[in-house]
Design a protein that fits this description.
By secondary structure, this protein is of the alpha+beta class. It has one domain. The chain is built from one helix and five strands. It has a three-stranded antiparallel beta sheet with strand order 3-4-5, covered by helices on one side. It has a two-stranded antiparallel sheet with strand order 1-2. The N and C termini lie far apart (44 Å).
């Protein structure tokens, strides 16, 4: 029996299915603030959802939920972290 995709937190109690997210748009300038960090476009929902989490944090959760290797900063085996 197939399991549904995991839910990804968007912040402030909002969750979406990982396999339904098709775009993340970071908010900048006056559009950002007061819990508004990223627009999340979800299949089946006409208007994008406003997430209080950053685009990078949501993207990492999506990658893990969909069984992919998260992109971005990561340590290489055998190398010490600089920070």
């Amino acid at each position: 029996m197939a399991r549904p995709a995991p839910l990804i937190p968007l912040g402030y109690g909002k969750f979406v299915r990982a396999d339904r997210v098709y775009a993340l748009v970071p908010l900048e300038g006056p559009d950002r603030g007061d819990g508004r960090r990223t627009l999340v476009h979800v299949e089946g929902i006409e208007e994008p959802l406003i997430a209080s989490r950053s685009e990078g944090a949501i993207a990492r959760d999506l990658a893990v939920a969909l069984g992919q290797q998260p992109r971005g900063r990561h340590e290489v085996e055998g190398q010490a972290s600089l920070f």
